[in-house]
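Thread: quick sanity check before group meeting

JM: Hey all, I'm pulling together slides for Thursday and realized we never actually wrote out the predicted structure for the chain we discussed last week. Dropping the sequence here so it's in one place. If anyone has concerns about the input, flag it before I start.
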Amino acid sequence: MLSNLSFKKQRIIIITSFTIIPLLLLLTFSYYPTLELFHLSFTSWDGLSPDKEWIGWDNYKEVFTDPDIFGVFKHNFAYFAVGIVQNIAAIYFAIVLNGKLKGRYFFRLLLFLPYILNGVAVAYLFGYVFDTTQGSLNTLLAAIGLDGETSWLGSESFVNYTLASIGFWRFMGFNMVIYLAALQSIPSDLYEAAQIDGANSWKQFLFITLPNIYKIIELNLFLTVTGALEVFDLPFVLTNGGPAGASETYVFKIIATAFQFNNYGLASAMSVVLLLIVVLVLSIQRLLFSKGGD
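JM (edit): ok, ran it. Output follows.
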């Protein structure tokens, strides 16, 4: 059918089709659900009833005034702190494995392997590692004469850091690969010229490596922050939010509010707040990095 049309008309039809179809998919699976989320956040709905009572800003008031809801953000701080350390470690290993280290391809693969594992499988794996009585970590600590009865997942003070350390193990290799790709894009001539000028390794890192991977650091920090805000699988599988709600994260609270307590209106408002916080964090980060880049 298209063959009977002129080249100009064929071109218009093809371009229009390739434009309209992705836009329809985007509107259907992204923009419409987002708009519906905003609409539900102003209602009181149990997820089943056809009636969605309009209650205005009441859900948002509850989000910000109830410490059991908005206060769980403090539990996410552990994931952010460990994520920063994870990025530092990823940069270090990327620099080391970017050199002429013997067996560097094997070590790259070894560090990247945890990332390809299923998140739930990783959680169950570390459930055995952190087990109080028969866990491999406590067994190792007891073997070297340290406290071998620590309740890693049962202590309110550091349970979130224990869970965050799993994320460190799983995602550090992924970040390392990203930094490694950025490092390999830096011309080697720059380092050779710096060596001739007498610059040591630290100065080469500060004045050559760091400026050239600046945008990648910005990207990874954004992923770290959003990942810290959206943690769900680890506390859900390993602790179910315990002990005494100490490991509940904000997304964990959203899921529980919607599917356990059937309050979809409040859960929608919580989701909108999370979306706005992510946008705010991204804006602040872009502002800070743009100033730093200047």
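AS: nice. The CA atoms of residues 87 and 249 lie 22 Å apart. The domain at 64-293 is CATH 1.10.3720.10 (MetI-like fold).
JM: adding both to the slides.
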